[in-house]
Amino acid sequence: MAITFKVFLDERRKKKDQKYPLKIRLTIDRKHREFHFDIRLEKFIGMLNSKE
């Protein structure tokens, strides 16, 4: 039984405050389910991918 999870911003649902809802996708034996929280974050690019 393999269990994996992914934390991500749902970029399909941009809110009025220009933030995205935080979601978690849980997968158990190829069946997945998404959980949403009342947390909204701004999207940022480049901080994790920078080559220093």
What would you say this structure looks like, in words?
With 52 residues, this protein is mainly beta. The protein has one domain (3-41). 0% of the residues lie in helices and 52% in strands. The protein is built from no helices and 3 strands. The protein has a 3-stranded antiparallel beta sheet with strand order 1-2-3, with no helix packed on it. A hairpin with a 2-residue loop joins strand 2 (20-28) and strand 3 (31-41). It is elongated. The chain starts with a strand and ends in an 11-residue tail after the last strand. 0% of the residues are buried.
Keywords, please?
52 residues, mainly beta, three-stranded antiparallel beta sheet
Largest sheet: 3 strands, antiparallel
User: Spans with pLDDT under 50 lasting ≥5 residues?
Assistant: none
Strand share of the residues? over 45%
Return the structural class: mainly beta
Q: In sequence order, what are the helices and strands, one letter per element?
A: EEE
Q: Please tell me how large the radius of gyration is.
A: 14 Å
Instruction: Tell the overall outline.
Output: elongated
* Helix content percent band: under 10%
Mean pLDDT: 82
What is the strand tally? 3
